[in-house]
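B., you asked whether I could sanity-check this one before it goes into the benchmark set. Here's the sequence:
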Amino acid sequence: MSRSKHTGCNSAGRLGWFLSILLMAALGCQQEKPLVPVHFQGEAQGTYYALTYYDAQHRNLQPAVDSLLRAFDLEASLWVEQSTLSQINRNDTSYSLGPHMQEMLQLSLRIARESQGAFDITVGPLVNAWGFGFREGRKPQQATIDSLLQLTGAGRFRVEGDKVVKSDARVELDLNAIAQGYSVDLLGAFLEEQGIQNFLVDIGGEVLARGKKADGSDWRVGIERPAESPDAPRELQDVVRLTDLAMATSGSYRKFYEQDGVKYSHTIDPATGYPVTHRLLSASVMAGSVALADAYATVLMVLGPEKAKAFILGRKDLEAYLIFTNEDGAYETWVSPGLEQQIVQDTQ
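And here's what the prediction gave me:
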């Protein structure tokens, strides 16, 4: 009897072991099943957006993404009449600054200090006066420029509680140089909240990469070659690998006009009130967040090639890819040391 009981117990043990092996094999097959990327795109902020991510549940998160982008426009868009930003500019005090607006404004003030005023979210009226905003215009009179310069500069506003306090009611804020990047960061944070760790978010060429592709390779992002005209087809200058990094590009080669034989860029130097006249055509910045990359790309475009190089070399948290013209008008590039190894040599 004792032997019989022992044999039965051993048989049950072998059965349990066999079932465990089958279960582990089944789970292993599930884990080894390759993830299929989820991809969708749409329109937002006057441009496109595109998301690619790997999700074991294969969820289509586009409705939630669209909702997030619409909610963001209600805070930071100049084109939405009832947005928080529009209310600030027309001195309607019925708004309350939400956490996103608070963070963007404080970040803008910080970058203005770090760039010694090259980044300035009060420069919008000058942009409009030169005909690059949503108000029509062309080369303004010097008196107009001088008048508008009295309303620009980071010292013209401050944040107190949930309100913006301006030194003059005519001061206007424009978040175009940071808001789009910030919205990319928001979408990235949303994906991470959904448990998604490998993704690429792109809004109008401003990109956030997290993790890797399913095959273990890095995400690849192109840097556009400067065009001779606003309508010229887009071509790649180079391709970079991005892993857990953000990239944004600012350029002057598609947003300009000519008047009386002079080419005017949409990048306005806050110090002079005039469009920049240096030879820097494009600045791509890599940083920990897209908001930072977006803002500092604008800073570099204001500084020009030589000052931009010095600025980047003095920062451990930023990398840059600059495209500019030499004295003969030919294109040249400069890549910061920390970015050189990320350039993809074979882009085929």
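One thing to flag: Residues 35-78+176-211 form one domain. Otherwise nothing jumped out at me.
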